[in-house]
From TrEMBL:
SUPFAM superfamilies: Ankyrin repeat. This is Uncharacterized protein. Keywords: ANK repeat, Repeat. It holds the Pfam family Ank_2.
Amino acid sequence: MEALELYELSQQDFHELEILLGEKPEYAKKKDSNERSLLHWASLAGRDQLVKLLLTMNPALLSERDDTNASPLILAALGGRLDVMKILVDNGADISDKNWNGHSSLQYACSKGFKDIVEYLLDKGADVNVRDDRNDTCLHRLASTGRTDIMEMLIKSPQRIDLDGQNAEGDTPLHLACQEKNLDCVALLVESGASVHILNKAKKSPLDYCSLQLRREILEKLNLAETPASS
């Protein structure tokens, strides 16, 4: 039986799976065609009882990776499963784990808007400046999606956050907030000290992506004189 088949059995009859794993404990390490283990599936789906059973049987399952290099913790974050994440972390899961694209649990939680998970990971010391393979930070993701509430949590965290970090295109979070017209994010970033002058690889500043009205409002807030848009 593959991992997904075992997971489906757990949905139908958990006690039967428990008996099967007791008779054949090696089944706990079975994987499917995507290299996902039973713990991966249980974590993604938020099956805390199954997660506890598997970790009791074999704590080493925490380090299992699927074909994207995602750990069970990363999948729990992707699925918004805070209770499972707490179990995994309490058993030794590393909150700094990344998949092959450089995505961490905190980055997924920010992208998906799971505020409770972001708060939990920050309390556990997750790096607010973590970057993926495109050099995007959590602020880049939040600026794109417009989640000002979570952005404010990161900015107010005890860690010193990089407001002006540039991604592979040279965009700062403020560039993206202006491009996506997420005005609340624009306001928060500017008020927090983000630079309006940094140029991306297209030689554009954040202001070049703003409407004339928003551009004036930002410059007035910063007490700066109007300057021509970059060409």
